[in-house]
UniProtKB/TrEMBL annotation:
Keywords: WD repeat
Protein name listed in UniProt: Uncharacterized protein
UniProt organism field: Paragonimus skrjabini miyazakii
Regions of compositional bias (Basic and acidic residues) in chain numbering: 239-252
The keyword Acetylation belongs to this UniProt entry's keyword annotation: no
Residue ranges of WD repeats: 9-39, 336-376
InterPro entries: WD40/YVTN_repeat-like_dom_sf, WD40_repeat_dom_sf, WD40_rpt, WDR53
Keyword Lipid biosynthesis in annotation: no
Compositional bias (Polar residues): 261-276
PROSITE patterns: WD_REPEATS_2, WD_REPEATS_REGION
Length: 411
C-alpha cells in the first residue's frame, strides 16, 4: 500500500522533467521552461519561481550552499541565487550539445555536465573554467555522477550501452568500461542448456552475476601518462586486447579526451600494464524466451548510494544493473528485473533501498542485500524523476504537470 499525501499542481503547465531537493526546498524543472521552488512539507503552491527559459532538462542544488541552484536549458547551464531570481547570476556555454545531466561535487566546487555529444565537462563553479573534458562515449552521454567517498571517480552512462568509470582528477584516462550489452546477454543467456527462470508474468526478479565469472573478475586499465592532444592514440595490441567476457567487461578506450586540466605528469612515464581474462560465453538462445524486451541496454539513469559502495544503472532494456565495491574498484553484482520498459530514473535511500521509475507507468522499491522481490507501485504516467531523503517522503515527477508526494514506507 502506498499513500499519496500531496499533489504539487499549481505551477507547471507541461511535463515536469527534473527534481532536486535541498534541506529546505524542492526544485522542479519542466518542458515549459519554468523552475519552481516548493516547501517539501507545507504547501502545494510554489514559494518561488524563475523567469521562463528554454525547456529545462536537469536541476541541481549546490551541496555546500543550498541558496545556489544549477539548471540546464539546451546547451546552456544557468546559475541561480535564490535570494534574487530575476535573472541567472551567470550562464555557461561550455558544452558542445544539449546537456542531459548535472552533478555537483560536495566540498570541491566541481560540476559535471553530460551532453548529447558524448562528452562530460568538469567545471569549476567558482570561475566557470573547464577543468577537464572527458570524451569517452561513442554516443549520447545521458548521465554523469561523482562517486561519493571516491571523489576522483566520475561514473557516466550513455546510449553506447556503456557504464564508464573515469579518474577525472588524474590523467582522466584511467578507466573501467562495463559493456552492458555483454553483461546483460551473459546474465540472461549465459547457459543455453539451462532453463530460463524469468517468466513474463512475474512482477520482479533478480539475476546474480555468477553464470560465468565471479563479480570480482575484471581488467582495469590505468594510465600515468597525460596527453593534451585531440588525436586518437592507437593501441598496438588492437582494440580487443583489454576485453573481459562474462559478467564484468573492461576494455581499453581508443579515443582520447580533450583534456583542459592543469594536471601534469611525467611525459616519459609508461602506461601501467593491463591485464585481461578470457572467459568463454555460451551462445545466446532466442531472446524472446526471456520475457525481457529486446531493446539495446542503453543507459538512461545512474544513481550512487551515499556511501559510494553501490552504483545502479537503469537501462532501455528495462533492467537495472547493480554494481558494488568497497574500494576504488566496482564489480557487477546483480541484475534487477521488474520493469517492462526503459528505467528512466533511480534513487538510493541510504545503502538499503533503491527506488526506480520507468516508462512502463510503474515504480519499484528494492531492498538491497535481500532476496525479497522488488515491490511494484502502479503509476498513471511515465516517470521522469524521483527525489527524496526518506521513504516517507518521495517526490515523483512524470509526463504530467503534477508532482506527487508518496509515502513508500508502507510498501
Amino acid at each position: 500500500m502506498v499513500s499519496t499525501t500531496v499533489f504539487l499542481s499549481r505551477g507547471h503547465t507541461d511535463s515536469v522533467t527534473t527534481l532536486a531537493l535541498s534541506d529546505r526546498l524542492l526544485a522542479s524543472g519542466g518542458d515549459d521552461g519554468n523552475i519552481y521552488f516548493w516547501s517539501p512539507s507545507q504547501s502545494n503552491f510554489p514559494l518561488q519561481f524563475t523567469p521562463r527559459q528554454a525547456p529545462c532538462s536537469t536541476v541541481k542544488f549546490h551541496p555546500d550552499n543550498p541558496e545556489i541552484l544549477y539548471s540546464a536549458h539546451g546547451r546552456y547551464i544557468n546559475t541561480w541565487d535564490l535570494r534574487c531570481l530575476r535573472a541567472p547570476v551567470v550562464v555557461w556555454n561550455v558544452n558542445e550539445d544539449e546537456v542531459n545531466s548535472i552533478d555537483v561535487l560536495k566540498d570541491e566546487a566541481r560540476l559535471a555536465a553530460a551532453d548529447d555529444s558524448g562528452a562530460v565537462q568538469v567545471i569549476d563553479v567558482n570561475s566557470g573554467n573547464i577543468i577537464r573534458t572527458l570524451k569517452k562515449h561513442d554516443n549520447i552521454c545521458s548521465v554523469a555522477k561523482f562517486r561519493p567517498k571516491r571523489t576522483w571517480q566520475l561514473i557516466s552512462g550513455g546510449l553506447d550501452c556503456r557504464v564508464i568509470v573515469s579518474d577525472w582528477k588524474g590523467t582522466g584516462r584511467g578507466v573501467i568500461i562495463f559493456e552492458l550489452d555483454e553483461i546483460v546477454s551473459s546474465n540472461l543467456f549465459g547457459d543455453s542448456h539451462s532453463p530460463i527462470n524469468y517468466q513474463p508474468h512475474e512482477l520482479s526478479n533478480r539475476g546474480s552475476s555468477d553464470s560465468h565469472a565471479s563479480s570480482s573478475d575484471y581488467a582495469e586499465v590505468e594510465y600515468d601518462e597525460f596527453d593534451e592532444t585531440d588525436e586518437d592514440v592507437e593501441d598496438d595490441d588492437g582494440p580487443d586486447s583489454h576485453r573481459l567476457l562474462g559478467d564484468i567487461h573492461s576494455t581499453e578506450q581508443d579515443q582520447t579526451e580533450a583534456d583542459t586540466s592543469d594536471v601534469s605528469s611525467d611525459p616519459n612515464a609508461e602506461p601501467l600494464e593491463s591485464t585481461s581474462v578470457q572467459v568463454t560465453v555460451m551462445p545466446a538462445p532466442d531472446t524472446w524466451r526471456s520475457g525481457i524486451p529486446v531493446n539495446p541496454p542503453m543507459v538512461h539513469s545512474i544513481a550512487c548510494s551515499a556511501s559510494g559502495d553501490f552504483v545502479a544503472a537503469g537501462l532501455e532494456k528495462s533492467t537495472i544493473e547493480l554494481f558494488a565495491g568497497d574500494g576504488k574498484r566496482l564489480a557487477h553484482l546483480e541484475s534487477l528485473y521488474g520493469h517492462r520498459r526503459a528505467v528512466s530514473t533511480l534513487l538510493f535511500i541510504g545503502d538499503d533501498h533503491l527506488i526506480s521509475g520507468g516508462n512502463d507507468y510503474s515504480l519499484f522499491l528494492w531492498t538491497l542485500g535481500s532476496d525479497t522481490e522488488g515491490q511494484r507501485i502502479s503509476h498513471d504516467a511515465k516517470v521522469n524523476a524521483i527525489e527524496g531523503k526518506e521513504l516517507q517522503k518521495i517526490f515523483i515527477a512524470d509526463y504530467s504537470p503534477v508532482i506527487r508526494l508518496l509515502d513508500m514506507s508502507l510498501c
